[in-house]
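Tutorial handout. Part one gives the primary structure; part two gives the three-dimensional structure as tokens.
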Amino acid sequence: MVEGVGRYAREAVAGMGSAGRMVFGAVRASRDVRTWGPHATEQMMKLGVGSLPIGILIACFTGIVLALLASYAFTNAVPRYLVGTLVQKTVMMELAPVLTGLALAGRVGANIAAEIGTMRVTEQVDALETLAYDPIAYLVTPRILAGLVMFPVVVGVAMMVGLGAGWLASMGLLDLSSEQFLKGARFFFSEFDVRYGLVKAASFGVAVTAVGCAAGLETRGGAEGVGAAATRAVVTSAVLILVLDAFWAVVWLLGRSV
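Part two.
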């Protein structure tokens, strides 16, 4: 068991290092706009627009469950309009970015790793180099850019859907009036809540796409290697999302509370 935990930890740390190198490589390759520019919009559609349904579904049920949990926790203890406060704060600052990021780590990270991994084992990446294309600029830069831009879009939609679902659940299941819920949602609202959630989402997008690209480019061993790369990308992305979530909380929230 200890050996297995150590192996997974070592693989996760190695994956984070590969992702860091991939991000720096993508930044250097960003000057080659003619190579990555034509593919950026396609990747944004695939990674962002294609991920909206799962983001909306997760946010919808998250908002409903949060409203019910808040009502249960606040029974006869605090004013019921604070249900709106809890739903607003937790959806926008934590659950919408993190849950959506974890779901997209499975969808986007595995897809990128499998796609680039297949190109690696079928020697398509080598063919790009033969044709004088930079594989980083051609494959990695448009995907990381798409993650940076589109993850906040998906999370922003999830924030609105989650808050709306909590609102409807409060009125339909908790006999809480619309005025009471909105009073609680506005009571402690700050534009920082939205900014914090979207910045976290952008960092998650870079992490997921970079890990997927790194796992794909390091694929070896045919079909089995492609499957292992996809699994490694999902696991490492999930761990990195949790690490980044803690990082932003310590760096940003702790500084505001002191």
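Part three, for discussion. The radius of gyration is 21 Å. Residues 63 and 163 are 6 Å apart (CA to CA).
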